[in-house]
């Protein structure tokens, strides 16, 4: 459990360093959900996030990205 929490926190910090103000990562086995607060939704940005997560966790990870648009 601690290992999973550490991976979630590491991924949150990694994605925040990609210029996102707020990030939530929830991992459940190979399934990873990433919620980011952003100015706009972008398939290109979602792909960048997915690639970063897969680089860290391995290509078997199933990654979903959800954008919450800042107001």
Task: Describe, in plain words, how this protein is organized in 3D.
There is one protein chain. The chain has 71 residues and is of the alpha+beta class. The chain has two helices and three strands; from the N terminus they run H-E-E-H-E. It has helices spanning 2-16, 43-57, and strands at residues 22-28, 31-38, 62-69. Helix 2 (43-57) links the parallel strand 2 and strand 3. The mean pLDDT is 91.
Question: How is the secondary structure organized here?
Answer:
Blueprint: H1 2-16, E1 22-28, E2 31-38, H2 43-57, E3 62-69
A few lines on this structure:
The protein has two helices and three strands, in the order H-E-E-H-E.
- Helices and strands, in order, run as HEEHE
Which residue ranges are poorly predicted, with pLDDT under 50 across at least 5 consecutive positions?
none
What does the overall shape look like?
globular
Strand portion: 25-35%
Q: Based on DSSP secondary structure assignment, what is the total number of beta strands? A: 3
The protein's oligomeric status is: single chain
Radius of gyration: 11 Å
Strands in their spatial order, largest beta sheet = 1-2-3
Query: What's the tally of helices?
Result: 2
Distance between the termini: 35 Å
The helix-and-strand class reads alpha+beta
Overall mean pLDDT stands at 91
Main sheet, how many strands, which sense, barrel? 3 strands, mixed
Please bin the fraction of helical residues: 40-55%
């Amino acid at each position: 459990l601690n290992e999973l929490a550490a991976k979630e926190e590491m991924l949150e910090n990694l994605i925040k360093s990609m210029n996102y103000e707020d990030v939530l990562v929830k991992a459940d086995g190979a399934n990873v959900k990433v919620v980011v607060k952003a100015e706009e939704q972008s398939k290109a940005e979602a792909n960048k996030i997915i690639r970063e997560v897969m680089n860290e966790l391995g290509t078997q990870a199933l990654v979903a990205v959800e954008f919450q648009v800042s107001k």
